[in-house]
Design a protein that fits this description.
Layout lengths: L27 H6 L3 H10 L11 H8 L2 H8 L4 H14 L9 E2 H8 L11 H11 L3 E4 L2 E4 L3 H4 L10 H6 L3 H11 L8 H9 L2 H9 L3 H11 L4 E3 L15 H7 L4 E4 L2 E3 L2 H8 L16 E3 L2 H28 L2 E2 L8 H11 L3 H13 L3 E3 L6 E4 L1 H7 L3 H14 L29 H13 L5 E3 L1 H11 L6 H17 L2 E2 L2 E2 L3 H5 L3 H11 L8 E2 L4 E4 L5 H10 L1 E4 L4 E4 L2 H9 L4 H11 L6 H13 L4 E3 L3 E4 L3 H8 L10 E4 L2 E4 L3 H10 L5 E2 L30 H20 L2 E3 L10 H16 L3 E6 L5 E12 L2 E6 L4 E6 L3 E7 H4 L1
Parallel strand pairs: 18-22
Antiparallel strand pairs: 1-3, 2-3, 4-6, 5-6, 7-11, 8-10, 9-10, 12-13, 14-15, 15-17, 16-17, 18-19, 19-21, 20-21, 23-28, 24-25, 24-28, 25-26, 26-27
Length: 818
């Protein structure tokens, strides 16, 4: 039986719930079945992909745990030493033509050149093997270690060794192998030539003797291949050679099976030969710990303050941009992204460079704060979630952005770079997706978290640590993602001065409440006051509360930002507030109530003067007209030479008509210092309040299931155990008719289930679920009615309704039958 064999759910299984039957060869499935519930819970917690969806039984769990993709995912999480231990298990116990014989633990320590520590808890080999056992990559068999079968394909050259000799020889023509056997071991009693040569090569002493027979050039060739790679290139590698005809160094080695042809121009060093040449150790260098950090020390409080200051900058920049986009949104390109010109405008609004602006825009989009409207020519707008986000405390707003960035598969650093077709990648476009980005970010931040608080490692030191920590992930793409993650984490305030911020540590552990408490202590508190200056400015010495910030942005223009924000009052800014419906008294009261300094007389005059002139003129459509209750104002306007192009005609003492449209008339008069207000057909003023537009919320990922990962893993183990009991329980099938009138099989099943319900007996059923899978269930029938069975399902630990036509088999449990 193979290690992934599963019992057929449609017939009684021979294996018990506890372990394999006596005398039966041990299998990975039987080992997994014999593990405790705590062990299986730890396995599912360490490899959560195995429980998505929950396996039907232990056999299904074993098959999933040893599948190619699942093992590849877990290999990417192994550090260099643990991977070296796993490669050693594969190299020393691999055999492609028969079941692997396993590896004694003592041989493994010797192959790695390790001396056992006095305390097993301090032994790195013990810790690595515990990790491999936990992840179900190796399993013990009577004191020996066996790798799961798929590792032989995923690690074809463990420790940079070639394939086993049996696998190489089996691929050669029979005549070639027989010639090797006759030349090297003519007196062998092995059953086949392959076994003869393989047995010879498995003896290190005999391999050493063969090597002693070749010349210096052949020895140098072997030395170059001893530590890998195990393949070499030569012309006509498959040519026939023997001990008598071998002339060149390559032919000398091939005639003694020290090199075996694996292609027309390729020769391979067999694994047994490589092990003999290495004379014990499998690796030139075995490092049980990552390389030490190199970098600079920073006081922990300065790191956190710097990161918190950057976090505040992020919040202010994104708020300013989205407030601007509420009135003047960016356009959506045909590919769904945002244009270069709009990105440049966004960078100016946020007072940053375009690379950082792209990061902020992408992060806001990932957090659900930006979306597109439903118009044909789409626009990027804030969503309704943005309004709720603005009302949250600053630390919670930042945590939403940081969490969205951590989980996003989009890399803003790629903005502006050409794609494979030479087209420039746009921010918010489809070409910025990198599925490995979230893991690379967590790798970087996790490694920074392993350093002492305040320590900022050098880039090369961080790269070396990551190369040791995740050797299977190393590639140019991963290196690019790591560099982007370092830069983006600093720009978003997760790091400060190159070190991990204290508020980021609990965020990585999933404790957002703790992260919020740490960050809240460092972020500046929102203020409800400003300082009015005599030069028509107001200084906000820190972040303002939301309502005051909005009102002040309406009545004044932002002149500069930084530690303090400077607002400047002008005629245009005051008129903007008046156009939005604010009165002179409203503006004056706002400034007096929220200013810690007296309101300057010049500012009071500015507000009252603009307010006095605001709305004295009213523009309508004649093409357009002007109406004013003060004839002197119209007289002054009609005689002004600067308005000759408007074609003003006095119709009455209080009415003047114009030949230009109303918008052009209003715009020109405002340029000349007048402050007309448009009016509707009934004579009422039409104030141009800014339109606040919102997009529909973006599709956010569904909320995670309730409960901690450990609780979910324990629940999955209970379901697997129940399903395994149903699959392997001893049972006596109840015969159901295969042939007969339509519905006879379903009627027979209903009759058997109804009888079990009357007697209160548990029964086993085979069932086809909604996904088309054949599953086993042990149920306690309650009623059978209308083509449905209502029963307590022990697998789900809940009452469930089963469609009778999906029931494929019914059986009595032997304990109930007895």
């Amino acid at each position: 039986m193979s290690e992934n064999a599963q019992p057929d759910p449609r017939r009684p299984g021979p294996e018990s719930h506890r372990a394999a039957s006596p005398g039966r060869p041990p299998t990975f499935t039987s080992w997994l079945r014999g593990r405790s519930d705590d062990d299986l819970t730890a396995l599912l917690a360490a490899r959560p992909d195995l429980a998505q969806p929950v396996p039907a039984d232990v056999g299904a769990l074993a098959a999933r745990a040893t599948s190619r993709n699942a093992v590849l995912r877990v290999l990417e999480r192994l550090d260099r030493f643990t991977l070296q231990v796993l490669e050693s298990v594969v190299a020393l116990g691999d055999d492609r033509l028969r079941e692997p014989v396993g590896v004694p633990t003592a041989d493994l320590a010797a192959a790695l050149g390790l001396t056992p520590a006095p305390d097993p808890a301090d032994d790195p080999l013990v810790r690595a093997l515990d990790t491999l056992h936990l992840l179900a990559l190796v399993w013990p068999d009577q004191g020996r270690l066996r790798p799961v079968q798929v590792l032989r394909d995923l690690l074809p050259h463990p420790a940079r060794l070639g394939p086993p000799a049996r696998a190489l020889l089996a691929a050669l023509p029979h005549g070639t192998v027989k010639r090797l056997a006759d030349d090297l071991a003519p007196d062998s009693t092995a059953a086949t030539p392959v076994e003869t040569v393989a047995t010879l090569l498995s003896d290190p002493a005999r391999v050493t003797g063969l090597v002693a027979q070749v010349g210096d050039q052949a020895c140098r060739l072997l030395d170059s291949m001893t530590w890998g790679p195990p393949n070499g290139t030569v012309s006509d590698a498959r040519r026939e050679v023997s001990l008598a005809t071998a002339a060149s160094p390559v032919e000398t080695l091939a005639a003694r099976a020290l090199l075996v042809p694996t292609g027309d121009d390729t020769l391979t060093l067999p694994r047994e030969v490589g092990l003999a040449l290495r004379a014990g150790p499998l690796f030139r260098e075995v490092t049980t710990d990552p390389p030490p950090f190199q970098g600079t020390e920073n006081p922990g409080d300065t790191v956190t303050r710097a990161a918190a200051g950057q976090a505040f900058t992020v919040l202010r920049a994104i708020e300013e941009l989205l407030e601007r986009w509420s009135q003047d949104p960016a356009a959506v390109l045909r590919n769904g992204g945002m244009g270069v010109r709009d990105l440049r405008r966004a960078a100016q609004t946020m007072d940053t460079d375009e690379t950082t602006a792209a990061l902020f825009v992408e992060t806001a989009h990932a957090a659900g704060l930006i979306g597109t409207d439903d118009r044909v020519a789409g626009e990027w707008l804030p969503t309704r979630e943005y309004d709720l986000w603005r009302e949250s405390p600053p630390e919670r707003r930042w945590l939403r952005l940081a969490s969205a960035w951590l989980d996003s598969d989009r890399v803003a650093a790629l903005t502006g770079a050409p794609d494979s077709g030479g087209r420039v990648r746009n921010v918010l476009g489809p070409d910025l997706v990198r599925p490995a980005a979230p893991q690379a970010r967590r790798d970087v931040l996790g490694e920074l978290g392993s350093a002492a608080p305040g320590f900022a490692p050098l880039p090369d030191s961080l790269a070396a640590r990551l190369a040791w920590r995740r050797p299977c992930r190393q590639s140019p793409v991963y290196a690019e993602l790591v560099r982007a993650a370092v830069d983006e984490a600093a720009a978003l305030g997760l790091t400060g001065r190159g070190a991990l911020a204290e508020h980021t540590r609990p965020l990585l552990d999933g404790d957002e409440d703790a992260a919020a408490r740490v960050l809240a202590a460092e972020l500046p508190r929102p203020l409800d006051h400003v300082l009015l200056q005599g030069d028509m400015t107001a200084v906000a010495p820190g972040p303002l509360v939301t309502e005051l910030a909005r009102e002040l942005a309406l009545v004044a223009d932002v002149e500069s930002t930084g530690g303090a924000t400077v607002y400047r009052f002008t005629e245009g800014s005051v008129r903007r507030a008046l156009d939005a419906g604010r009165g002179v008294a409203d503006i004056t009261t706002l400034l007096e109530r929220h200013s810690r300094t007296p309101m300057p007389q010049a500012l009071r005059y500015l507000v009252s003067d603009v307010g006095r002139r605001h709305g004295r003129l009213r523009a309508g459509s004649a093409s357009s007209y002007l109406r004013c209750d003060e004839p002197a104002v119209l007289e002054e306007l009609v005689t002004d030479r600067r308005v000759d192009e408007l074609g003003l005609i006095r119709l009455a003492p209080t009415v003047v008509a114009s030949r230009v449209n109303r918008s052009a008339l209003v715009e020109r008069l405002r340029q000349l210092g007048y402050h007309p207000v448009a009016e509707s057909g009934d004579g009422s003023m039409r104030l141009s309040r800014p339109e606040v537009r919102r997009a529909e919320p973006v599709d956010m990922p569904p909320p995670a299931e309730a409960g901690s990962p450990a609780d979910l893993a324990r629940a999955a183990v209970r379901a697997v155990r129940a399903g395994d009991e149903a699959a392997t329980a001893a049972r006596r099938p109840i015969p159901l008719p295969e042939d007969g009138p339509p519905g006879s099989r379903a009627n027979a099943a209903m009759e058997a289930l109804a009888h079990a319900a009357e007697e209160g007996r548990r029964v086993w059923i085979g069932y086809t679920d909604t996904d088309g899978r054949q599953v086993s269930r042990i149920v306690e029938p309650s009623s059978v009615d209308g083509g449905f069975l209502t029963a307590y399902d022990t697998t789900r630990a809940a009452v469930h309704r089963f469609a009778v036509h999906r029931i494929t088999a019914v059986a009595e449990l032997e304990e109930a039958a007895e």
